[in-house]
Structures are given as structure tokens and as C-alpha cells.
Amino acid sequence: MADVLTIEQSITEWLEDVQDRRSIETYKSYTYALRTFHQWLAETKPELRVIDELNAPLLKQYVIALVDRKLDARTLHQYVGVLTRWLHALIDAGELPGIVNQRGKLMTADGIRNLLTQQIPRLEPAVAPRVPDLRRLPAYYAEQFRVFMSTRADQIPGPDDPVVWRQYLNLLRNQALIATLFSTGGRINEVLSLDVSMVKRRGEIQDAVRIQGKGRKERPLRINRTACAAIATYLQARTPYFEDATALFISHGPRGKGQRLSDVSAWKVVKEAAEALADLRRAEGAPKDEVHALLAVGPHALRHYLAQAMLDEGADYKDLTAVLGHSSAVVTEQFYARLGDERVLEVIETFAPEPAATFRYPISEGQDEVEAPPEPLG
Fold first, then answer.
1. Which of 35, 41, 121, 27 is nearest to 76 (CA)?
2. Has 187 been annotated as catalytic?
3. Are the beta carbons of 18 and 216 closer than 8 angstroms?
4. Which residue of the set 187, 200, 238, 252 is catalytic?
């Protein structure tokens, strides 16, 4: 008799298989979603241990429990989506004959998904936030570096003064990081995954680099001249002290010295610049809405800003899909197809047809011109 497949074993095996085909972030979210389900089972149905004992009423009960936790709709859909993908894989592999409903009939994988999604709020399409003008953001750390060097009479610090030396390298790195985010429109994890060997070849910083992004889709990232110059300056300053560091953006210590920069640290780098820009715009008399929007800016906002600016300049959704690495143009259009009032008025003024100047009926020979329709009969 074949060994009975336990739920825990099945989850572990499926996640191991997924790990080879998905990004690290996707794998982590899959793991968390299924571990949450398994923990709920252990707490509410500790006697249920094998795959064959799963049924539709039980799964429905779990989803209702998730709803009761007041999770937002997007999180609920993520949990249900991972759960149904796992069950679908088991059914396809023949490890699970099917899920039995309350009437004792087997349900298809699609039927299970439909049943569970009916228990959670309908998910409205995600829409990109309208991002304020971020063109001055990359200049923030350049100005901070200028001030830093002016206070030192342009003398470059060395590791014998570790605090000042780290500040010097951090400013150069931060300047290069924001310039790269602004230039590429890459996701923060994509930019942080860059290695020196990817962007520097034969001693020169490349103006484009090919990456493997979300869903393991390959695409090029454009690195503009500002970003190339910032990266070159940063690497020139850091290399003598971090020759073995492979990552493009690293920590200079004291914690994680020489290791790849974390997304939390990168978020702090962007937030500092965004908050400084918010203060500057407040002093310039900017509207409160713009200031608040700047205070909410994180690394992903630079990606939204690039997309938004390209669309405003007339870029096609299909082209933007390739730039951003989306799964389809439908996703891109759905996410960014939103116009502000000023843009709506501009579009109407540019493309709306002009009315005709007159309305004249054709006249027969010998008749006077008629400018109004004849009286209706009857």
C-alpha cells in the first residue's frame, strides 16, 4: 500500500518545486500563505493530517476565517490564489482525486477556486497612484555630497576615520541608487540584484543591462548618462576597500559590511530624499496635496513616475509593457489608464472634432436657399 501523503509533506514538496520557477518574493508569499493555512488546520482540525481528508466545506470555513481577520481584499485574494494553485497542482499530479463538496461530489480545481473567491470581496483592478514631479529627486544626494565635501575642503576621507568615510561612500551610493531607479523604472529588488559585473564591462559602465524580472521575464534596463556617471564615481571610490564585493549597491558597515544593500535600507534612502523634496516644495508654496504625496513616495514611486511621464509624452501601452516587464499590455493599461483633470481637458482640446459652421439643406435649381428643416407633415 502506497504511503499516504500528508498535508504538511505536500505543502513542503510543492513549495520546493515552486522555488525553482518563481522569484524569491513570490516564493516567500506562497510559503507564508500555505503556512498560514496549515497553522489554521493545526489549531482548528488537529486530527486532519492527510490530503484526502480535505473537502470543500472545510476550505470554505478557512476562507471565512480569513475574512473575519479583517484582511484587505488584495491579501485575501492572494491567500486564496495560492491555496487553489496548490490544490490544482495536486489534482493535476494525481495526488488528490478531487475536492468533495457538501453533497459528496467531486469538484474541479476551477470549481474550488470559484467557490472560495465567492466568499471574499470582489477585487477591484489595481490603479497606479498619480505621482508628483520627481525630476529633482536624483539631485538631492548630489547636493548633500557637495555640501559634505565643501565642509572638508574637498579632502576625501579614508577608513582611518570610519564614521566620516562611511558617510562619504553612503552619499555616493545613495546618489547612484536613486539615479538608477529613476533611469530604469526597475522594481527595487531588480535594481538591488544588479552586480558590478552586469553594469561594468571592460572598465566602462554600460548604458543598458539585461535582467530577469518578475515571473522570470527577461528585459533590458536603460541606464541614462546621469546614472552611469553616478555609478562610475561610486565604484571608483569604493573598489579599493571592497574589491571582493560583487553586488552593485552594498552596505559599507558597520552592519552587513560589504553585503548587498537590503530593500529596507534602500527604502530609507529614497524616503530621505522624498521628505527633503516635500520640505522644499512646502517652502516654495506647493499645494498640500503635492506635499503629502511626496511624503508618501517610496522606491516604487519612481517606477510609477517613469511610466506616467512616458504615457504623458505619448508612449504606447504595448511599448510601456516591455519597459516595465508586465505580463501583458492589458495589465499596463488597466494600471495606468487614468487621466487627471488637466490631461482630460488637454486630450479633448487636442483630439475632439470641431463642429461644422453651418447647417444648410441642398437647394434645387431655381429655389431659394433654405436654412431650416421643412415643417413636419401632419
1. 121
2. yes
3. no
4. 187
How far apart CA 301 and CA 132 sit, in angstroms, is: 9
DSSP secondary-structure letter at 204?
E
State pLDDT tens for residues 138-181: 999 999 999 999 999 999 998 999 999 999 999 999 999 999 99
Relative to beta strand 200-201, strand 204-205 is antiparallel
Catalytic residue among 45, 60, 300, 338: 300
Q: Which residue among 85, 166, 214, 271 is the active-site one?
A: 214
3-class state of residue 257 by DSSP: strand
Query: Would residue 77 show up in a list of annotated catalytic residues for this protein?
Result: no
Catalytic (active site) residue 336: yes
Q: What percent of the chain has pLDDT over 90?
A: 41
Given 303, 304, 305, 317, the catalytic residue: 303
List the one residue out of 99, 98, 104, 64 whose CA is nearest residue 80: 64
Between 74 and 280, where is the model more confident? 280
Cα four-point dihedral sign 325, 326, 329, 335: negative
Active site residue 85: no
pTM, to two decimals = 0.60
What pLDDT was estimated at residue 42?
92
Active site residue 214: yes
